[in-house]
Every structure is written in C-alpha cells, then in structure tokens.
Amino acid sequence: MTPPPPAPLPGIESVLVTGGAGFIGSHLVERLLAAGHRVTVIDDFSTGNPENLRGAEGNPRLRVIEAKVSRFPHLSGVVGEADAVFHLAAAVGVDLVVKSPIQTIRTNLGETEAVLEAASERSRPVLVTSTSEVYGKSAKDDFDEEDDLLIGPPHLQRWSYACSKLMDEFLALAYAAERGLPVIVVRVFNTVGPRQTGRYGMVLPRFIAAAQAGAPLRVFGDGQQTRCFAYVADTVEALWRLMACPGARGQVFNVGSTEEITIRGLADRVVRLLQSPSAVELVSYAEAYAPGFEDMRRRRPSVAKLHRFTGFRPMTTLDEIILRTARAGVAI
Questions:
Q1: CA 259, CA 216: separation in Å to the nearest integer?
Q2: Cα 297 to Cα 207: distance, rounded to the nearest angstrom
Q3: Enclosing domain of residue 104
Q4: CATH code, 91
Q5: Catalytic residue list
Q6: Does a structural domain hold residue 263?
Q7: What is the pTM of this model?
Q8: Is 88 among the domain residues?
Q9: For 53-83, how does the pLDDT look when each residue is reduced to its tens digit (9 = 90+)?
Q10: In this structure, is residue 102 part of a structural domain?
Q11: For 196-212, what is each residue's pLDDT tens digit?
C-alpha cells in the first residue's frame, strides 16, 4: 500500500534549497515535492550530483539552477520568491577538508553569508545546517547544544572545517539578533543512507562498497573512535519539523542518532550483515590523511531539545540503515 503524501509545511508554498543536489538535499527536495511545494534548487554540482535529482526530473514544480550560491547574481530575487530557505550548500567530507582547506573555508563562509544577507532583505526563514564537528575535542558522554566547544589548534587543517561551520552559526545568530532574521541552526551528526558517496571519505558507503566487492574494509586509526549514524529520512524529518516549528527560530539543535558504535564495530557489522568474506584492516591516520591528523574520539548527540520542540527523535536502527543503504547501492 502506497503511503499518503506528507502534509505540506504550514504557510509555505515555495521553498529554496541550496545544495539541493547533494545527498541530504536531494532527499529533502523529494520530500518537499511530494508534499506539493514548489522547489528551487541552487547547486554548483561541486560535490552534489544532478543524478541525485533524477527521480524528480520533469516535475513542473522543480526548478534547478546550476550556480555557486555566492556568485549567483539573481540570488536576492530567488530568495525573495521563496517562503522558506533550507541552506545545505557547504564543503563536505574529511578528504575534501584535508586536501582543500582554502576551498572549504571560503565555501562555508561565503555561501552562508550570501544566503543570510539575501534572506534578511525579505525576512525569509532560513534553516542553516551546521555540523557535529563544532563540538571539537569534547570528551563528554553526549553533546548538548549549550556545551562549551573545544576546537583543536589552527596548524592542524582538520579543525578548519569545524571553525568555518561554527562561524556560520555565529553569523546566522548575529543576523537573528541584529536584523530579526528568523533563523534555525541545526548541527547534523553523521547522516547516512542511499545516494551518499564514499568519494569524500564518508565511512559507511566505503565499507559497504568494499564488503560487496569482497575487498578489505579499511578502518583508520585504532578503530575505537565512536560515532552515531542517523538515517537520511530521519534527518530530513527533523529538518522538516524544525522549519515547521515557530519556537525553533533563533535556536540551535542537534540532529542525529544516539545509537553509538566504534568504527571497527561498524566494519564488523557491515561484514556480518552483508555476509561478506572481506577482512577488516587498520590503517594509520598518517597513511590515510597526513601526519598530525586529529580525530574526535566520541560523537554522540543529546537530542532531548529536538524532541522537546518537535516531538521527534531519529529512530531507524543501525542494522536497518546498513541493509537499506546496501540494497540501494553505493558509489565510490
């Protein structure tokens, strides 16, 4: 039986999604179209992929603009036509961060500033996606939105991404305080699922592709670092509910699963669930990235605030996430 279409966002007809051809963005676009919204996507396809939107191809309510947000001359007009903005355009992936730190910083800062400035001209609500990376080297059992943040030193490029996204948060909340812009900041924890590529170092698609090919699963470091993996549909549901919640404006929210696993444990789980003959290999960070690379040992969110404001928390189990992602196929 086909599920009924989702109810539209209240009071919103037209939506702009920057980075809408990306992994999360494309799933959000499909959800918006299914609910009857008109959707405009701006994406330069640097990390996004037009193939991600193939399922919506030909939909008369979808407009796709190939452009870099900060260099698009008609951005103000496009934002003005929208009733709400989801800002997902950003540099993504550890590989890109390590290899292209200038591009990472410029992309994260420049695109966000351009969107916020354009939105402030018409007071359009904006949801800005940040990242769990802003928590830095915190050793807490779970991360809370009110926590102090502990970022590593600037000579290690690993932390440039975290700092650039943190500045996005400061800038968004500054627009809220000074210009009254209705802003929501979302710290997205590790989100996985169909369409995510391993091209930029994303761990689950790398593991699944290796397991399906019978190749070794390469685990960086000692493998005891832990993460929590949320299914993309759960992340989209959280973004949706936050945009629909007037009380969320001017606030910061964690969005992620709380089911914690070591990266070595994740590799073993993938091998077991996919009944793969693959071995698991440990690879040093120096070999995988560069000498001096630092990683976060734990990254587990508190989602109590998200649940308090929206009544929702990500619930898809890790086993189901792995199986759904594997069935959909992954790209490297």
A1: 25
A2: 19
A3: 14-193+229-257+302-315
A4: 3.40.50.720
A5: 161
A6: no
A7: 0.94
A8: yes
A9: 999 989 999 999 999 999 999 999 999 999 9
A10: yes
A11: 987 766 899 999 999 99
